[in-house]
Design goal:
192 residues, mainly alpha, Endonuclease III, domain 1, 11 helices, globular
């Protein structure tokens, strides 16, 4: 099952075939439009001239990587901080999974273990970890026992609440509508 997000085909293909690229995209999915976050790994590949390994990113000169992230258009709103966090992610993948990002999920024996592993990644808080477990299950067919429960409401079938549910323009519109309703409710609550 390939990833099908509102980014170009080349970016979707990379996200579907390269586990490290998918992790980096999810890491970068904060304080920027999701299209930017999920296109950034493809842009990183283009800037480097090849798909980087966890080992390469882990040992990259931090200032040089920050420069790559900062090239226009920047890979993130906070390129230096996200270059450092990407490097931390690569180091963890190298140390814990022998550089094989996909083994983070292919060797998880349960949804609870998968959630625990994803939650341990730099930049993956509780909500982001649950969304990523849902994305793996819904879009890549990674479904260890209990994955829906581990993903919480993000794993619900037929939901349109996160990037895990986006497969076309219609589902993108539903997710954006849901998020706008949450913002409106929070704004209304804050005004009381």
């Amino acid at each position: 099952m390939p990833i099908s997000l509102p980014v170009d085909d080349e970016a979707n293909e990379l996200l579907s075939s390269n586990a490290l690229a998918l992790l980096i995209a999810m890491l970068l999915d904060q304080q920027v439009p999701l299209e930017r976050a999920f296109s950034a790994p493809r842009d990183l590949v283009q800037r480097l001239g090849h798909e980087p390994s966890a080992d390469e990113l882990a040992s990259f000169d931090p200032e040089a990587l920050a420069t790559v992230f900062s090239e226009r258009p920047a890979l993130h709103r906070f390129p230096k901080a996200m270059a450092a966090r990407t490097q931390d992610l690569a180091r963890l993948i190298l140390a814990e999974y022998d550089g094989d990002a996909a083994s983070l999920w292919t060797t998880a024996s349960s949804g609870a273990e998968l959630l625990k592993r994803v939650s341990a990644l730099p930049g993956f808080g509780e909500v982001k970890a649950k969304i990523f477990v849902a994305l793996l299950g819904k879009q890549l067919g990674v479904r260890p026992s209990g994955w829906r429960e581990a993903a919480g409401s993000f794993g619900d079938e037929g939901s349109y609440v996160s990037v895990a549910d986006i497969v076309d323009d219609e589902s993108l519109g539903k997710v954006r509508s849901y998020k706008q309703s949450l913002k409106a409710a929070a704004k209304s609550k804050a005004g009381k």
